[in-house]
Design a protein that fits this description.
alpha/beta; Rossmann fold; N-(1-d-carboxylethyl)-l-norvaline Dehydrogenase, domain 2; 8 strands; about 15% strand; globular
Length: about 290
């Protein structure tokens, strides 16, 4: 597909990632149909986008004209049937295989046959998602990093039946968004999470075993390994529930005990200590941090 023919892009899911993806698409001149089940979620997403745009304007990184462009380029809808108007779709709902497969089956019926259906999954098999459609050659992973407007990487993951034309198209689209697309194979966790999650998990084990305090572990990794953020702070930022989910996917998909989630991580998630979004994780957060 010629990316020049892609003008209207539907983003399914208006959570943190979907909101960021919609913002980046709109900032780069695409018309965005942002879809979620509730108007309140969609309104919150628009508010978050405008807040970030205003912050960038105050820092001199964007102009009032840029804000008008973004406002003009995004429409919101709770109706998945609006996918009929889309030239491309990016799904970004919660990491639940059954939910994603159901959405892709519906999108397969709603969109034109040539439309590429991309998923922002961070760990779920692209092949499995594509098998819910009659166009697996048009199904591909586009794993954006959080926060989407800042992070330059997109992992591009083809499923077993994804065509080269589809891969080439999403690679070009990624570059049009100012990102650096990197192809990864369809194995659990792809590249990013397969490398990152065991590091975070080991940091949690080190904390549980008393090897170091939260601050000591994060400081060692920041100053000793030149990481911009320590692994425990990063886990809080990602969400401890998300970390646990991805580790479970790695553990089950690869069958290697090195991916076994740390018991302390399981305990914290059970207690509702999920990191930044709950106000308590390895660190404590107030509203100014969120």
């Amino acid at each position: 597909m010629d990316t020049g023919a892609i003008r209207h892009i539907m983003v399914v899911g208006a959570g943190t990632m979907g909101t960021g993806i919609a913002q980046v698409l709109a900032m780069n001149g695409f018309y965005v149909i942002l879809c979620d089940v509730e108007h309140s979620i969609l309104e919150h997403a628009l508010d978050a986008i405008m807040h970030d745009i205003d912050r960038r304007i105050s820092k001199g990184k964007l102009t009032a004209e840029d804000k008008q462009t973004v406002q003009k380029n995004i429409i919101i809808t709770p109706e998945l049937t609006s996918a009929r108007e889309a030239d491309f779709v990016i799904e970004s709902v919660s990491e639940t295989p059954e939910l994603k497969r159901d959405i892709f089956a519906r999108l397969d019926q709603l969109t034109s046959p040539g439309v590429i259906l991309a998923t922002n999954t961070s760990s779920i098999s692209i092949t499995a998602i594509g098998s819910a459609t009659d166009r697996p050659e048009k199904v591909v992973g586009m794993h954006f990093m959080n926060p989407v407007p800042v992070m330059k990487l997109i992992e591009i993951i083809p499923g077993l039946l994804t065509s080269q034309d589809t891969i080439d198209t999403v690679m070009v689209l990624g570059r049009k968004l100012g990102k650096t697309p990197v192809e990864a194979a369809d194995y659990p966790g792809f590249i990013a999470n397969r490398v990152l999650m065991p590091m975070i998990n080991e940091a949690i084990y080190a904390l549980m075993e008393g090897v170091g305090t939260v601050e000591a572990i994060d400081t060692v990794m920041k100053l000793g390994m030149n990481h911009p953020m320590g692994p425990l702070a990063l886990a809080d930022f990602i969400g401890l529930d998300v970390v646990l989910h991805v580790l479970n996917v790695l553990n089950e998909g690869l069958g290697d005990p090195k991916y076994r989630p740390c018991p302390l991580l399981r305990k914290m998630v059970t207690a509702g200590q999920l990191g930044c979004k709950s106000g308590q994780g390895f660190y404590t957060y107030d509203e100014s941090d969120l």
